[in-house]
Amino acid sequence: MSTSNTLSSTTPYGTLPSASPLPERRPVSLPRLNELRERGEKITMLTAYDATFAAVADAAGVECILVGDSLGMVCQGLSSTVGVSLETMRYHTESVLRGLRRVQGTAWVIADLPFSTYHESREQALRSAAVLMQAGAHMVKLEGGGWTTETVRFLVERGIPVCAHLGLTPQTVHALGGYRVQGREDQSAMLLRRQALELQDAGAAMLVLEMVPAALSTDITQELKTCHTIGIGAGKGTAGQVLVMHDMLGVNLGKNPKFVRNFMDGASSVREAMAAYVQAVKSGQFPDDTQHAW
Ligand code: KIV
Question: What residues flank ligand 1, with Cβ below 6 Å?
Answer without folding.
Answer: 47, 66, 68-70, 112, 208, 210, 232, 242, 244
